[in-house]
Amino acid sequence: MPKPPLRLTTRIHPSPPQHARLHHMWTTLLAAQHTLTAWLHHRAAGGTRSLLDFASGHGPVTAGHPRRPARALPPLDQLNAEVRAARDALGWTPAVPPGALRWMTAETAREWRAAGQRRPHGPLPGPWPPSRAPELHLDNAVQVLDPVTLHLACLDADELIPADLYLPTPYWHALLRRQQRRAAHERARCDTLEHTWLDAGDGKAAAELLTRRARGGPWTELPWPAVPDALPGDPVSREGTVLRWVTGDGLPGRWVAEWTFGTGDVMAPPWVFDDVLGVDLGYHHPFACASGGLSTLTPRPFRGSFAPPPLQASNARTAPPRHGAWARARHRRALFLRLRPIFEAHLDLALQHRAVAIEQVAWGGFARRGFPFASYALDVGLVAWLAWLDALATSHGVRVLRVPPAYTTRTCSACLRVGPRPASGQPFRCVGCGYSAQADLNAARVIRRRGLAKLGRP
Ligand SMILES: [Zn+2]
């Protein structure tokens, strides 16, 4: 049986005008969905107008002889044809790429079918609520230009979006291989057109070449970094990229790009240790881990502040440097690349355990206490690591246990007594039983005990 695709998300940083464009895409798509839903109700009530006529108020309200109400949904091909016929006249394109409209149509059809199966004579589905989280399905219309730059086919050629493409190495390579193949294909196509134009005097080829180059810009000509060939079992990029607006996890609202990977027929190795690994994430020690037979404490692999320093204007000019957003993305990526080997080693370690216990981190609480742990965790990739773990755990048969975060640093992992919080850099010492341990390791052991309790084990 083919394995389900794996989805990994990375954070992207559209500028305020780009954010407005993406948001406009979503509100237009939502309006299109409302129109489609209203038309499906019209059809279900016996109406016979086309989607375009219905939405623009043209055509007879009913045919000469009213039809019997038809609750059955038209086939998806027909729905897509109706949307295609209406999309230009109703202004849905070019605001929304055709792929996003196709996804909206398919998703609406799926919801109607599901509602019909649940309650054949129940109420028909209503339109999507305005509160629905934006998602733009852009298939393969998102291009990686360099390790921190994305281009969306639906934006202008020079509208580039800085991105934190934080992926485990095999997935990063898979993404690069796919992008490289696309770039090589495009270059070959342009070479052929150039020959056809210059050798055969073909004006059409010259025109197509110019358009392609104008669309792609100089990035299509840049060499890509060398990427090792794929081995059996390596993930394969399927693109199928979705942009989502994510809120509600205590972190600031943000756009993310979700990438789809095929993971082939090679089975992921199942867990080998029948134990719960407690993992404490932190600033000075990105990881403290504890299981029945293991304690590890990993120091931060870089010095100095993670926060980007202010951009210095040169004396010659007063305007801020043009590529500030790109430079900040490279700045963050440098931190991530220092941490990536540690992230990958801890991902492997976690996936070897039957279960992994992690705090249900209250990100918002850090910001309220004036500690920038949430932005640190986003910038260096700790948040990405948590998402990697969630995405990969299922295929390894590993359970991720989110445990309450209260007092993990103040609780004794030996007797569970809550005492004072250890001062920064000081070990934990229990005032009850005298137990003493490095503070982050004690927290990891408390987290592990809470994970064990969730599994009903002592
Ligand atoms: Zn104690």
**Which ions and ligands are bound to the chains?**
zinc ion
| Spatial sequence of strands, sheet with the most strands | 2-6-7-1-5-4-3
Proportion of residues in β-strands? 15-25%
Shape: globular
Helicity level, as a percent range?
A: 40-55%
What count of helical segments does DSSP give?
A: 11
Instruction: Write down the CATH topology of the domain at 273-309 and 322-454.
Output: Nucleotidyltransferase, domain 5
CATH architecture of the domain at 273-309 and 322-454: 2-Layer Sandwich
Weakly predicted, low-confidence segments: none
Number of separate strands: 14
Class by SSE composition:
alpha+beta
Distance between the termini: 38 Å
Q: What is the CATH level 1 assignment of the domain at 273-309 and 322-454?
A: Alpha Beta
Radius of gyration: 27 Å
Instruction: Please summarize the sheet with the most strands.
Output: 7 strands, antiparallel
Mean pLDDT across residues:
90
CATH homologous superfamily descriptor of the domain at 273-309 and 322-454:
YqgF/RNase H-like domain
List the secondary-structure elements in sequence, H or E.
Answer: EHHHHEEEEHHEEEEEHEHHHEEEH
Descriptive notes:
The protein is globular and about 85 Å long. The protein has helices at residues 16-44, 51-56, 76-87, 98-118, 169-200, 203-216, 324-350, 363-368, 373-380, 382-396, 439-454, and strands at 6-12, 135-139, 142-146, 149-152, 160-164, 236-246, 254-262, 273-281, 287-291, 294-298, 353-359, 399-403, 428-429, 436-437. By secondary structure, it is of the alpha+beta class. The protein has a domain at 273-309 and 322-454: Nucleotidyltransferase, domain 5. Helix 1 (16-44) packs across helix 4 (98-118), helix 3 (76-87) crosses helix 4 and helix 5 runs antiparallel to helix 6. The model has no long low-confidence stretch (mean pLDDT 90). The strands form 3 sheets. Strands 2-6-7-1-5-4-3 form a 7-stranded antiparallel β-sheet, with helices on both faces. It has a 5-stranded mixed β-sheet with strand order 10-9-8-11-12. The chain has a two-stranded antiparallel sheet with strand order 13-14. Bound molecules: zinc ion (ZN).
